[in-house]
Amino acid sequence: MSFLNSLPYELFVGLRYTRAKRRNHFISFISMTSMVGIALGVAALIVVLSVMNGFQQELRTRILGVASHLQITGPDNQLSDWQFIAARVKDQPHVQAAAPYIMAQGMLSYGQAVQGAIVRGVLPAEEDRVAEIGAHMRAGQLSDLRAGEFGIVLGAELAQSLGVLIGDKVVLLAPQGQFTPTGIVPRIKQFRVLGLFQIGMYEYDAGLALIHMEDAAVLYRMADKVSGLRLKLDDLFRAPLLSARLTDQLSDFGRYYVSDWTQQHANFFRAVQMEKRVMFIILTLIVAVAAFNIVSTLVMAVTDKRADIAIMRTFGASPRSIMQIFIVQGALIGMIGTVIGALAGIVVALNIDVIVPAIERMFNIQFLAKDVYYISDLPSQLLWSDVGMIVMLSFALSLLATLYPSRKAAKMNPAEALRYE
Questions:
Q1: Domain boundary, last residue among 214, 245, 264
Q2: Stated pTM of the model
């Protein structure tokens, strides 16, 4: 009790009003509704943003498991001195590995089935250092690709479309034909299927085929040239900065074009980020509606405490002090709701991999069917920066909602308030 007595009387009275059992139970009901609404809104915001962060991270991981952090090409998408460029870039900070590749289009056929595909010629040992395809092999290994044996590794969806299995032979048609007396004839080569991979992104699983780089050079007549170099960094978010630096450094040796993953997949990641922002705005409205219920609570509390306000004004309380009393009362409602919501949201976000399967088992449903979605589990990544921003926003809205009722209380005339008492 001595601690409470040491508090400023505005804070003490505000806390007392909040804790007191009101004669008007409707005010208590509105106050509780506001608190619950704020808690639900804050919890929903934290959980939804965590899930969207998880999806964004999962998609980025899957895309960059096949694509590259940085890519270097030359004029006409060809590099003739790729060994020299590879030696130069490997000395750069944050560059972990570099791998050459040959990229071309092709047509794969097996029996009556025909499918277009992107054909990538790779060096298996080097490719494993810049991509994660080897970790997503469903059958066979990337190291099974050997120069001169004309083996091929297909995406699982592409193999299913063609109807091929391990050991089957597919025909690869290169669009760059050769001139003959009868006209242009496409180059055709038979490849044996050595492996299948499944990244979890339809774009790659249904449209990418890997062959050895030397076999690709023979088929597409690249000689000792390659299409470019793929780089892996220790921090993928440094890619734009390193891309600009390499562009300046390589300009001294000729015409080279450096692009990073943020440019190659800009539209996709921009769409994901935009969706996250829209969801944040929509869910913030829930918090705002609940926070502005505090206005109703305090307006009725001011009416209910007219006599108390008049007595305090008579004993010398300033309008500013009266205003602070009701600000404390409204802020406490907002703070309790925000804290409860934040704790609930954090618990759910950190345990969503347990909660969602439990709900699916309980009601015998599946939110993300495995035969429809490649990401069948709800990923979650809790960012404390998001939690801090949500908590501050919720508390700020709660304080904003207290301004009108508290100003109304401060302007109350003591004589008018006590006339009918």
A1: 264
A2: 0.71
